[in-house]
Structure formats: C-alpha cells, structure tokens
Design a protein that fits this description.
With 235 residues, the chain is mainly β. It has 2 helices and 16 strands.
C-alpha cells in the first residue's frame, strides 16, 4: 500500500488513534505553547548497532524523550521514518518492536510516495495509548530491529518525529537525530532458504530513518483501521 504524500502535507500526516482509554477520550492539552521556541520534547536515538545482517537477529537501540517544559506531555507517539540509499527496502522487511516497560509492541509500516518507510509507536489493540513524559523528566524507550533475509545490502538512516495526539488532530512536538546503519546481505541469496526471520510469532514491521527533509515531508502514525488526520508543527 502506497500512501499519497504531497508537498502540501510537508509538515506531516498522522493516522488517528483509536481511543481506548480515558486519556484518549478526554484529549490531553498540548504540552507546547505558541510562545515557545523549539520542540517541547528533546529526542535522541542512541545505542544501536552499526550493521544488521539480513535474516539475522535483533539489534537494540533506545529513544530518549526529554520534556523540557513545566507541563506533562501525554499521548506521545514517536514516528519512525526509514530512508534507504537503494530505495529497495520493502515495508515487510524491517521488523520493529518497541517496549512499554517489559512488554513489547509491534510496529506496522507503510511506504510513502517518496519511498520512505514510516511507522508509529502505537498499539491500541495491545492497550498502549501513548507515552507520558512528566515535566523535566526523560523517558527512555527501548526499540529493537531486525531485517528479513530477502533484504538487499543497503545503507539506512533512521529518524524519529514525535507527535502528540489530540482527539481530532495532532501536533509535531519533537524530532530526533539521525541513526545510520547498514544492512549486510549476500549478493546471491539462496532461493531455498526460508523467507523472513526465524521467529514465527513475530509480526512483520519496519521503520527507517529519514533525512531532515524526509521528516519534514512525511511523519505518519499508523494503526490498524486508522484514518489520516493532519499534524501541525508549532512555529
């Protein structure tokens, strides 16, 4: 499925999150105010491996969300954007999970018209309404990524745009640094080799880090059965 992403949506798009909690129904107030400069959440990706083997195991990395305001930031959903140099990475090839405490949640990815892969850290079916970061606090989110055996050798940049979801809208409240890595793969894969990762219970998913321009042109929150809604970036 390719999503129509045009220049008029350059400040991002997000999928509506299905409200399953009191917090989602009430619609939290924005953790950003129009008089402030910069994003309210300082966002940093760190700790990931430099390379992933196609068909290999998971590599773990972390996403720090630091609330620089005096207000609580709730219903926070980082959006992982992946941009690969070969423009060959398919949505089913990267497999991404994030952790809320000790519990892993799958991430589902889609492909934009600009060949980025985008996926939101959200799992309404799994009872996850979004992250909450207290004033002045830092929340560290554990993420793990693997790549299926049919992926080609590639260079990938991962980045996170952070969205705060409101009832009928959303706001861009953070943006991370780039995390660059390579995918190592055999130039001539064995056609008899089993497809995918050796974990039958894992759901296919992806996330790719974009350049700064890619983040400005596409940030997408994805959920099963979700609808698109606009996301505003504060000025």
């Amino acid at each position: 499925m390719r999503l129509p992403m045009t220049a008029c949506l350059c400040l991002a798009a997000a999928a509506a999150l299905l409200p399953t909690s009191a917090q989602a129904h009430s619609g939290p107030s924005s953790c950003a105010t129009s008089g402030e400069r910069g994003f309210p959440l300082t966002t940093r990706v760190h700790g990931g491996p430099n390379a992933y083997e196609a068909g290999g195991g998971y590599g773990t990395w972390y996403l720090d969300l630091t609330n620089t305001t005096a207000r609580t930031c709730g219903n926070i959903h980082p959006v992982i954007v992946l941009v690969d140099g070969e423009r060959a990475l398919a949505p089913a090839q990267p497999r991404l999970e994030f952790y809320d405490g000790d519990r892993p949640h799958p991430v589902r990815f889609e492909e934009t018209d600009a060949d980025e892969l985008v996926g939101v850290l959200a799992d309404e079916r799994g009872g996850f309404p979004g992250f909450t970061v207290g004033p002045g606090r830092t929340l560290t989110v554990k993420v793990r990524l693997a790549v299926t055996s049919d992926a080609v050798a590639n260079r990938v940049t991962a980045n996170a745009a952070v969205v705060q979801r409101h009832d009928g809208d959303g706001e861009w409240v953070g943006q991370s640094n780039d995390y660059r890595f390579t995918i190592d793969a055999d130039p001539a894969p064995n056609p008899d080799a089993p497809d995918g990762l050796p974990f039958a219970d894992e759901l296919a998913r992806t996330g790719v880090g974009p350049t700064l321009a890619a983040l400005a042109t596409a940030a997408l929150l994805l959920l099963t059965g979700a609808v698109l809604l606009p996301v505003r970036r504060r000025r």
